[in-house]
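Format notes (please read before filing issues)

Several people have asked whether sequences and structure tokens are stored in separate files. They are not. Every record keeps both together, in the order shown below: the sequence lines, then the token lines. Line labels are part of the format and must not be stripped during preprocessing.
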Amino acid sequence: MNRLIGVDAARGAALLGVIAVHSLYEANRDGTPTWSFSLFGGRSAALFAVLAGLGVAFLTGGRRIPLSEGKGTVAGLAARALAIGGIGLALGYTDAGLGAVILPHLAVMLLLAIPLVFLPGWVIAATGALTAIGMPVLVHLLQPHLPKPKLRNPTLRYIVDDPLRLLYELCFTGEYPALPWMAYLCAGLAIGRLDLTRRLVTTTLAGAGVVLAVAASVTSSFLTERYAMARIWAAQPRSDLTGRETAELLALGGDGTTPTNTWWWLAIDAPHTGTPFDLLGTTGVAMAVLGLMLLAAQATRWAGVIQTPLAAAGSMTLTLYVVHIMFINSEYDVFEATTGCLVQIVAALVIGLAWRATVGRGPLETLTGALASRARRWATSERAVIAGTPATGDR
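Then the structure lines:
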């Protein structure tokens, strides 16, 4: 139970962070990041993605799946991913300027994570590290040869009208490019293979996260101040960005990628830039938050009581995230930024508590779970019929 409370509390923290990023201002009048964006910008979405990988690990029993169980596992995970992707594309009518929808990108990440469940944990961790370092380099090389991203929330119509462009944006050039962001899914999946009920494991997880986050930030700061900043500005005339846009990107981060006019862009550590330091640093923050939430749940009964509202919201993040995106794009969001953010946070915590106490799982969580279960039963049933034996579901 402590493990579930800690993980759900981390999910709740990710949800509230996303609400804050979408609802509050990013910059002060002088162009510097606001305190809320400095705290949550890029980190909340990364935590969301790491916990998605952790969810895959939990769905597969926290173990390496043998090939003999592959058919049902693949079908269940694929159905869940496609359902999440469908929900995300249905939100394509919303304004990406208010909140870029992560769900279609997350669906691609979940599909790409399926082969990983058959691998040992150390291989998954190594794959995540190599992805964080190598994939930004690949994107930097490919980006000039790909169509410029529209940076709009994709709709179901994109699948018919321009499927290749949709694939490029979801995988390489969108706000949450799936291939670089697989570093987060790998981290979550590897963490999910650990015994998160042991205090030594959770302490090590939190400590390693802090070390990774600090190391990435310090190294990036050194490289940026010593080398990268001068070279980025020297190459600025060859960029598609104006001087003001370049300064804004350096201060507030980007939309998933960086310009390709100089390799020194990969040395920066700013939200949603997809650089190695961005990916590694935010992975470290996610590890630290998860470890601290698990430690708090293990430490004392009172910590669990305090975490309960956060965990309740975290147990239905998909539903509450969709409601949040719909709300900020509706005529009902008539509030000033701070008031609107507080209203949504209180509503998420109250709805989470009430729903968990009366119904249980969130409606969209129930839907995706049911579709995944049905796909898994169908796949194992087909296998049993082919093998000439009665299917479990037919007994």
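For reference, the curators noted about this record: The CA atoms of residues 381 and 387 lie 10 Å apart. The mean pLDDT is 92.
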